[in-house]
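Give me C-alpha cells for this 137-residue protein.
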Amino acid sequence: MDVGFGGSRYDNIKSNAYWANVHLDTRLAADSEFAFHIADHLNDCKEKPTVGLLARQKYKTNNYPFHYQNNLKDFFEMEEVKLANDKFNNTFDKLYPKTGKLRKRLIKSGSIKLNYVNPIEKNLRRTFIKIFSKVHL
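Here you go.
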C-alpha cells in the first residue's frame, strides 16, 4: 500500500491517518500506548479538516468490521482521544456550520479524493436535480 511518504505537502497528515486506521482496523485490542496515533490524526483534522477527512477516507479499510467498531469505542473512551475528538468536532462545526454534512457526504461517497476530484457524471439523476433546483415552490 502506498502510504504516501515523500514529496507531498500532506505527508504528516497522511501518515497519521494511516497509522490511526492501522490501530482501529485490527484484531488486536485497543491499547492506550497507541492512542497518540488516533489523537494525532484528530489534531490534524482539527487543523485542516477537509484534508484530514480525505486522508482518513483514503486509508480506511474494512478488514475486521467487528473489531473496528470495538476498537473505535475503546479508543474514544480514552481521555486523550476524547479530548482531541471534541476539539475537532467543535472546530469543524464552527468552520462549516452549513456545509459540514455535505463535505462529509462527498468525501464518504468518493466524489472527492485527496489530490483528485472526480469528473461530474452527466446522468438522469443530475438532470432532475438541476431542473428541480430551478423550480421555486
